[in-house]
Amino acid sequence: MAPPGTHGTGKRDEQKLGYLMFSPDLWDRVAHVGVERRGIWAPRTFEPFTTVTSKRNQASDHAAPFADLDL
Questions:
Q1: Are the C-beta atoms of 26 and 69 separated by less than 8 Å?
Q2: What is the C-alpha separation between 41 and 38, in angstroms, rounded?
Q3: Which candidate, 18, 12, 14, places its Cα nearest to that of 64?
Q4: Which of 11, 26, 28, 61 is a Cys-bridge partner for 22, taking CB atoms 3.0 to 4.6 Å apart?
Q5: Neighbour-count burial of 21, counting CB atoms closer than 10 A to its CB (0-12 exposed, 13-18 middle, 19+ buried)
Q6: pTM higher than the cut 0.70
Q7: How far is CA 36 from CA 5, 24, 25, 40, in A?
Q8: Beta-carbon count within 10 A of 65 CB
Q9: How many Å apart are CA 33 and CA 54, to the nearest integer?
Q10: Which sign, positive or negative, has the C-alpha torsion 18, 21, 26, 30?
């Protein structure tokens, strides 16, 4: 069983918690979207930053969605 506050691997829709919302004008400028997972300690699921060596020093238990906009 996963620790409280976690939602599995975050790969299925029902496990996703972070969203990005854009106005229609900005949506037309979205060039790339992704999820930054390297700050999370889940070595069997995602490769972390080299400085993330345990749950104790992970940046968060929540991956950060991001978008690159062509402005």
A1: yes
A2: 8
A3: 18
A4: 26
A5: exposed
A6: no
A7: 18, 24, 25, 9
A8: 14
A9: 27
A10: positive
pLDDT of the chain, 71 residues: tens digit per residue = 544 445 666 667 777 777 899 999 999 999 999 889 999 999 898 899 999 999 999 998 888 889 999 99
Place of tokens 């790969």: 11
Delimit the domains of the chain by residue range: 27-69
**Per-residue tokens: 34:** 């992704």
